[in-house]
Amino acid sequence: MTISQRYKAILERFAEAMPDPKTELDYDTPFHLLLAVILSAQCTDKRVNMVTPALFEAFPDPQTLAASDEETVYGYIRSVTFPNNKTRHLLRAARLLVEEFGGEMPSDIDSLMKLPGVGRKTANVMLSVVWGKGAMAVDTHVFRVSNRIGLTRGSRTPLATEKTLVRHIPAELLPKAHHWLILHGRYVCKARKPECMECIIRDLCRAYERGGMRNNEE
Fold first, then answer.
1. Contact 50, 79 (CB under 8 A)
2. Is residue 121 among the annotated active site residues?
């Protein structure tokens, strides 16, 4: 099977099984998605979704958050991972949005990455989820799954994985493919014990072909 054939077959299988995949982070505005994605770094979406309702209500826009202080913001997010750093990131991002972008969310990767707490992955999430742009956010799930199933080979960095996926996946499918790979990694192609017998692309997976990912076969 060529790499093009593998991509085509895997994407078709995902599209059939998950025709309308979405982020599992709850949000109502681009600004609130930004806050949720910043909070989700090394933290589960479930935990983030537990703290964001009160956070969103208290800070409906960048202006209200920018006017707040660390003690107040910390009180809303104390149960997420690294709450001190994330408190500072949220406040500084809101202030920069107000000061440099007039309170509006930028829609290009370079401007997004100027915001504190926003790296390339977070910026790509915003581009694909909010604006449906052909961007691929590579988190640990996307990085792991892409290599296991054979969409990438020997990629050593998230950026290398991103470039390979963007090169092979049609731009209009990238926003969906981002979610397909994340959800597959989260619930099926898990890091330690992949559910190979439940996998809809098992027959297309390079790792399974080599016999290396059959932890639950018995």
1. yes
2. yes
pTM of the model: 0.89
How far is Cα 128 from Cα 144, in angstroms, rounded to an integer?
20
- Report d(CA 29, CA 60) in Å as an integer: 9
pLDDT tens for each residue of 117-157? 999 999 999 999 999 999 999 999 999 999 999 999 989 99
CA distances from 134 to 34, 35, 64, 103, 209 (A): 18, 22, 31, 25, 30
* DSSP-derived 3-state class of residue 20: coil
Please tell me which residue in 45, 46, 139, 176 is annotated as part of the active site.
139
Separation of alpha carbons 183 and 124, rounded Å: 17
Kindly name the residue from 121, 176, 193, 203 that is annotated as catalytic. Answer: 121
Q: Please tell me the distance from the alpha carbon of residue 107 to that of residue 30, in angstroms, as a whole number.
A: 10
CATH superfamily of 30-131: Hypothetical protein; domain 2 (1.10.340.30)
User: Domain map of the chain by residue range?
Assistant: 3-21+136-209, 30-131
The answer to whether the Cα torsion of 118, 157, 162, 213 is positive or negative is: negative
CB-CB contact of 43 with 50 (8 Å): no
Q: Is residue 193 flagged as an active site residue?
A: no
